[in-house]
Design a protein that fits this description.
Strand content: 5-15%
Order of helices and strands: EHEHEHEHEHHHH
Number of strands: 5
CATH topology of the largest domain: Rossmann fold
CATH superfamily of the largest domain: Response regulator
Helix content: 55-70%
Shape: globular
CATH architecture of the largest domain: 3-Layer(aba) Sandwich
Number of helices: 8
CATH class of the largest domain: Alpha Beta
Length: 213
């Protein structure tokens, strides 16, 4: 059976690599793009079955621009939006009108994201996301005050990077993905996770210093 092709669009390298690694180990053919322009090129050339699009994508094209351009090219391509920011009603309506199949809040729960992807690719999916479903999906994300939006978004991204790296390693170990690796290879993988966590911890410390200044 042919593997479904998943396009991950995310400009945060650690987060992007973590999502790609998770789905690569679970019988998906994964391609990634770290800019909106690269994403549109891959949509045309690789014709993925589903796209995981970070709505807060940086650069010339943000997530909204990318989604709009995807719909110009392909009205039926399945797109899941990932967001950690605050969306107002107009933005939610715009996303829904462009036919996304799911909306996932950050920090990302990888098994939950996998369920959303498989449900979207399956035959049981009823169709594009409805407005009330989108609001419900974001209810927990949008419960804070406006003055804390930017701070919460940065903290959530950093913490998500830490938890995602650790979760991926533990899930893979539990499911036996490392059983064919020798001791040195396993050690190298563990060290890579530790280094990534340390890097994210330094980012947290720097953000904390800025808050207290």
């Amino acid at each position: 059976m042919e593997k479904p092709t998943l396009l991950v669009v995310n400009d945060q390298k650690d987060q992007c690599d973590c999502i790609c690694g998770y789905f690569s180990e679970r019988n998906f053919s994964v391609v990634k793009a770290m800019t909106g322009i690269d994403a549109l090129v891959l949509v045309r050339n690789r014709r993925p079955d589903i796209v995981l699009l970070d709505f807060s994508l940086g650069g010339i094209m943000d997530g909204r621009n990318v989604l709009s351009e995807i719909r110009v090219y392909d009205q039926s391509l399945k797109v899941i939006i990932i967001t950690g920011g605050i969306l107002d009603e107009e933005e939610i309506q715009e996303i829904v009108s462009l036919g996304v199949v799911s909306l996932i809040p950050k920090p990302i729960d990888l098994p939950g994201l996998e369920t959303a992807v498989r449900d979207s690719l399956g035959t049981s999916r009823k169709g594009p996301l409805e407005l009330e479903e989108a609001k419900a999906a974001l209810r927990n994300v949008q419960s804070g005050g406006i003055s804390l939006i930017r701070l919460r978004h940065k903290l959530a991204n950093i913490c998500n990077d830490i938890s995602a790296q650790c979760e991926l390693y533990l899930l893979n170990a539990k499911e036996g993905f490392y059983k064919d690796k020798n001791c040195q290879e396993r050690l190298d993988m563990a060290v890579a996770v530790i280094n990534s966590v340390l890097d994210s911890t330094l980012k947290l410390a720097e953000l904390s210093r800025k808050i207290t200044v």
